[in-house]
Fold this protein.
Amino acid sequence: MTPESHTTTDTDDLGVSPPPGCPAHSLGPGGLHRLYGPEAQDLGALYERLRTEHGAVAPVLLHDDVPMWVVLGHAENLHMVRSPAQFTRDSRIWSPLLEGMVKPDHPLMPHIAWQPICSHAEGDEHLRLRGAVTGALTTIDFRSLRRHITRYTQILVNRFCEAGEADLVGQYADHLPMAVMCEILGMPDEYGDRIVHAARDMLKGTETAISSNQYIVDALGRLAAQRRAQPEEDFTSHLVTHPAGLTDDEVREHLRVVLIAAYEATANLLANVLRTVLTDPRFRAQLNGGQMTVPEAVEQSLWDEPPFSAVFAYFAKQETELGGQRIRKGDGLLFAPAPGNVDPKVRPDLTANMQGNRSHLAFGGGPHECPGQDIGRAIADIGVDALLMRLPDVELDCDEEDLDWSESIASRHLVELPVRFEPKPQQDVMEKPGLQPVHHRRTNWQVGTPVPEPAPAAEPAAAADQAVTAPAAPQQPVPAAEPVGARRPGAWQRFLRWWRGY
Ligand code: HEM
């Protein structure tokens, strides 16, 4: 970390009644900004203003004007999560909480309230709880996981493929991770519209959020009790029987963390990648050139739109310095992947692709680094791949500017992703997702390794279409050899291989 000299602001002073005339302590330019209300309509823009005004670590106000730091620098975020001697995730030392500034009905209370879960624990207790979670995760067989994911993609696409239109958030991205997580946890029968709705409702914090939460907690409590009585071969049984000896409450709470954190993050990721593949000219250009595989598109999305924009929170265990700011013992700091990933020090050119570079902050780092990232990536990879195999002519059914997001400090969720395509027949869910022979043109995106250059044509637009219209027919030229060092073959190439039986 290379600390810089920025305006020094003690959070002790971040009250609602700053000393008159002090620019660093007043609301507005050069002073404090609220991460809520009208000023925070566009959090991305606000973070950039904060970076200009304060540098890598900025003082902000949460709801009820509770003081907080937001960490904007890539290096500073990494330093914080990797320094457990200086920063903890245990909110019980947070000064505004101890001083009664945070009311019990504070909107961030579900994130703030300490719970006996690995996310809030540290030291030996963290090792014990996290050890049980990672121990249970390592028992997951990735081949069967990939089979489950593929099967659910088939089930979901079958629900709308004959209609010729769909909302890929409500009908796909919001469902696939929940279906897979229910399967992993050992409660496939609980998967359905009801649990998806309950999780979404809970995350939105609507007036029915408490009963939705209760619905999920009850389902997980029942599952934990059943597996305690009779273990099976699933994540929950391995969690229950792990030598760490988790109590019933600990088991239920960790099932909840895993289900909800995994669900929300993966649903956001899947929706973001689908949107990017459908709309982003950088991807179109690269995909047409055949250099961008779906896993690379997923990684680029983890840089550009991390599924958790910010994680509440880390707390200073002692007086320290971060990004040129003096941090007091008991101060709270938001770990913020969204602004950290676009820090100009690591990404001077945001349009440059980050191919092969996985050093983004989307999965955190240090002792609390996400243990489920391979599962999240697998759901997104297969989810995008399978959808494109089934609906290769899928295209956005609205102007990109008309897409809506719901945004909070924690995440940015695409509300809807309307698409259209030629109606397709259903497929056997046990089959590999594929293209039924269709004879219409493909649109101008292509996911995969290089396809041959089209023959020169009089009409450039027609040539571009031809290059990617590749019908699933034997006369299609054999794709060019994969470049040396190429990663996993793209969807189209794998489809061709499968089609030709090699
Ligand atoms: C794209 C998908 C995902 C993203 C972006 C994501 C991101 C994150 C982040 C940012 C953290 C917090 C790191 C910190 O506190 O510093 C985290 C923690 C965690 N994630 Fe994930 N996650 C994803 C999927 C999953 C999945 C699929 C699972 C489980 C199957 C999972 C389980 C957990 C657990 C248990 C923790 C707490 C770890 C600890 O505190 O030691 N996540 N994740």
